[in-house]
Write a structure and sequence with these properties.
Layout: H1 11-17, H2 21-28, H3 38-51, E1 56-60, E2 64-68, E3 74-78, H4 85-103, E4 108-113, E5 118-122, H5 126-143, H6 163-167
Parallel strand pairs: 3-4
Antiparallel strand pairs: 1-2, 2-3, 4-5
Helix pairs in contact: 1-2, 1-4
The structure holds iron/sulfur cluster.
Iron/sulfur cluster binds near residues 20, 22, 23, 154 and 160.
Length: about 170
C-alpha cells in the first residue's frame, strides 16, 4: 500500500529532512534565504559542466526534476561530495519511489560524485520504501507546524543559506 501525501513533496525536501528539520519547515513555507548559498551554487556549477551533454533532465508533474541517463532506465543525481550520503541516497530513492508510485515505472538510481570519481547504485528496497513513507509523513507534520522547529547547531549550519536567520 502506497502512502498518499497530502502535500507536494519533492526530492529537495527529502534531502533536507535528513539534514535539518527546521530547514524543511523554512523551505516548506516558501521562506527565501537571505543570501546565495555558495555550496548550492558550486553544486549547480559542477552539475552544468559535467553532465550538460550526457543527461536528459525531465520535469515530472512539476514535482521532481530528474536526470535520466540516455538509453537506460536509470535516474542520476549529481552531488559535490559523499559527505551527506544518507540524504543523497534517500533523495534518489525518493525519485525511484515516485516513478514507481506515480508512473508505474521501475527504475534504478545512480548517485554520481564527479569530484570523488564515485558512482553509487541506489535501489528501492521494501525497507527504503518504508523509510521514505515515514519521512513523507514526518515532513507533512513538520510543515503543518505553526512555527519552525528550534535551531540546533549542526556542521551543515556553516554552509546553510538560512544561517543568518538561525544564528545572527
Ligand atoms: S542554519 Fe542550521 S539550524 Fe538553521 S536551517 Fe540551516 S541547518 Fe538548520
Amino acid at each position: 500500500m502506497v502512502y498518499e501525501s497530502k502535500i507536494n513533496i519533492g526530492g529537495t525536501l527529502i534531502w533536507y529532512y535528513y539534514i535539518c528539520k527546521r530547514e524543511v519547515w523554512l523551505i516548506g513555507h516558501g521562506i527565501e534565504p537571505e543570501q546565495e548559498n555558495d555550496y548550492i551554487a558550486l553544486g549547480r556549477h559542477i552539475h552544468e559542466i559535467f553532465y550538460q551533454r550526457r543527461k536528459k533532465e525531465l520535469n515530472i508533474d512539476n514535482t521532481i526534476k530528474i536526470d535520466i541517463l540516455p538509453g537506460k532506465k536509470v535516474i542520476g543525481e549529481i552531488k559535490k561530495s559523499t559527505r551527506y550520503l544518507e540524504s543523497a541516497r534517500m533523495q534518489v530513492a525518493f525519485y525511484l519511489y515516485y516513478m514507481k508510485r506515480e508512473k508505474g515505472i521501475k527504475m534504478e538510481g545512480l548517485l554520481l560524485v564527479p569530484e570523488e570519481r564515485r558512482r553509487l547504485k541506489i535501489s528501492l528496497t521494501p525497507d527504503v520504501e518504508k523509510a521514505l513513507e515515514k519521512a513523507i509523513k514526518d515532513i507533512e507534520g513538520i510543515i503543518s507546524m505553526e512555527r519552525p522547529p528550534s535551531a540546533v547547531k549542526i556542521p551543515y549550519c556553516k554552509k546553510c543559506a538560512y544561517r543568518n536567520m538561525c544564528w545572527a
